[in-house]
Design goal:
Structural class of chain A: mainly beta
Structural class of chain B: mainly beta
Strand content of chain B: over 45%
Number of strands of chain A: 11
Radius of gyration of chain B: 14 Å
Number of helices of chain A: 0
Number of helices of chain B: 0
Shape of chain B: globular
Oligomer: heterodimer
Distance between the termini of chain B: 41 Å
Helix content of chain A: under 10%
Largest sheet of chain A: 7 strands, mixed
Number of strands of chain B: 11
Largest interface: A-B, 30 and 24 residues
Chain lengths: 116, 112
Amino acid sequence: KAGVTQTPRYLIKTRGQQVTLSCSPISGHRSVSWYQQTPGQGLQFLFEYFSETQRNKGNFPGRFSGRQFSNSRSEMNVSTLELGDSALYLCASSTDRARRVNTEAFFGQGTRLTVV
Amino acid sequence: EDKVVQSPLSLVVHEGDTVTLNCSYEVTNFRSLLWYKQEKKAPTFLFMLTSSGIEKKSGRLSSILDKKELSSILNITATQTGDSAIYLCAVTRSQGAQKLVFGQGTRLTINP
């Protein structure tokens, strides 16, 4: 069974540009979450999508947005990039078949974004 | 605001030693606590602890959830150099879907 796939693996962008990251969840997983990891702040939740709907959002500015497609693949977009957006962006997927059931999240390899 | 604190932040031991990593949390409507191991990029899942499953074991790794003390420990016995990694603790709420709130992580280094 293939794991969570994130593309691209590495990106270098300049300030002011925008970027789109992609995440393909494990087959059958309908929940996709995005996290930002930096040395100073650790792993922080960005947002979560389930059945093409954003269910939960973290405390990030509106420059960070996302969406989910009918096949559960998800994209994350960051507009007007700032130097502080340099980070490892991780995607996690889970089955979340029913809210009452505890399900673990599985992570992809991440996209390393560098803003110069 | 939900909060997860791990200790120590960094730990260096010799191969063969036993280590205990700590995680304490403050979260409204606690649902589960998860442990992950992060070596390079992708955190890999280790354990999930809930009210109905407060103790888990897999090989040399084991974990216990103390709901009264709002904490968890991760034990690794007979450590090996391959155990060197960052160990992350995260909690979830009953409401809030799949949002994981992470601690800062413990960087474990095993010297041969």
